[in-house]
Write a structure and sequence with these properties.
- Keywords: Kinase, Transferase.
- One of its GO terms (biological process) is glycerol catabolic process.
- InterPro entries: DhaK_1, DhaK_dom, Dihydroxyacetone_Kinase.
- Its EC number is 2.7.-.-.
- This is PTS-dependent dihydroxyacetone kinase, dihydroxyacetone-binding subunit.
- With about 300 residues, this protein is α/β, with parallel strands linked by helices.
- It has two domains: about 200 residues, Dihydroxyacetone kinase, domain 1 (Rossmann fold, 3-Layer(aba) Sandwich); about 70 residues, 2-Layer Sandwich (Hypothetical Protein Tm841, Chain: A,domain 3).
- Helix content is about 30%, strand content about 20%.
- Helix 3 links the parallel strand 5 and strand 6.
- Helix 2 packs across helix 3.
- It starts with 10 loop residues before the first helix and ends with a helix.
- The model has no long low-confidence stretch (mean pLDDT about 90).
């Protein structure tokens, strides 16, 4: 498959260099590689940090700025960032009011962010965590540790970032993030597989009239494969699935910086009720043309 790249080994380095060159409000750090606001650390404000495997741009580095993330740690393509990246980035952005780590619910992300959290605590940084698990396509799966963190990540980074910008405390920002996660639900579909540059071929195949319903952001299996008929029908099926799978019971871990330990808390997601006001985010994982996904808003 043809791609506009030079060398598959240099894709991430060149992408980050271009991002920093185009946006002087960002600073690209090396050894280890991470990105921060150019004015970081910002004194008197809680700092927000997130990260994950590259290949989902603009997430996360594209969401750094005033009222959003203070820094982000990009891993290699579809690979979690290492604990040293997370640690160094957090140390760089900490303005004295604490650091909130926003973590998508994937095994590698959880492991590496939790390791970095403990290192930060041992270094005297006030730190806590929010885990995002909004994908209703997964409940119990061989492929994941529960529901995956997907589109709700963007809303949480924006809304909690705004709270941090207005001066909310670390505890208040964390509580808002957990509340938003608990109320967030998402579902995705794909008509074809992505191609990781280093692999050079699609990660799976679908028939011409087939879609993967509930696909993960790395191409993980969804609920099922089903015939694709039309945009309107597909959006109807997605909304039905969101509404039918609103209730979800699980236990999430978070770091209690006062106790210096991990705490577990049951967090039941609540289904939507008639009359609820919602934010409807129509998202594109990267392969969908602007024409198609804007048309889905009216479906």
């Amino acid at each position: 498959m043809k791609k506009l790249i030079n060398d598959v080994q240099d894709v991430l380095d060149e992408q980050l260099a271009g991002l920093a060159k185009a946006h002087p409000s960002l600073t690209l750090h090396q050894d280890p590689v991470y990105v921060t606001r150019a004015d970081a650390p910002v004194a008197g404000k809680v700092a927000l940090l997130s990260g994950g495997g590259s290949g989902h741009e603009p997430m996360h580095c594209g969401y750094i700025g005033q009222g959003m993330l203070s820094g982000a740690c990009p891993g290699e393509i579809f690979t979690s960032p290492t604990p040293d990246k997370i640690f160094e980035c957090a140390m760089q952005i900490d303005g004295g009011e604490g650091v909130l780590l926003i973590i998508k619910n994937y095994t590698g992300d959880i492991l590496n962010f939790e390791t970095a959290t403990e290192l930060l605590h041992d270094s005297g940084v006030k730190v806590t965590t929010v885990v995002i698990d909004d994908d209703v396509a997964v409940k119990d799966s061989l492929y994941t540790a529960g529901r995956r963190g997907v589109a709700n990540t963007v809303l949480i980074e924006k809304l909690v970032g705004a709270a941090a910008e207005r001066g909310d405390s670390l505890d208040a920002c964390a509580e808002l993030g957990r509340k938003l996660n608990n109320q967030g639900h998402s579902i995705g579909i794909t008509l074809g597989a992505c191609t990781v540059p280093a692999a050079g071929k699609p990660s799976f195949t679908l028939a011409d009239n087939e879609m993967e319903f509930g696909v993960g952001i790395h191409g993980e299996p969804g609920i099922d494969r089903r015939p694709f008929s039309s945009l309107d029908q597909t959006v109807d099926e997605m909304f039905d699935t969101l509404l039918e799978n609103g209730s979800y019971h699980r236990t999430l871990r978070f770091w209690d910086y006062q106790q210096g330990s991990w705490q577990e808390e049951p967090k039941p997601k609540q289904p939507l009720q008639s009359g609820d006001r919602v934010i409807a985010l129509v998202n594109n994982l990267g392969a969908l043309r602007f024409l198609s996904y804007t048309a889905s808003i009216t479906a």
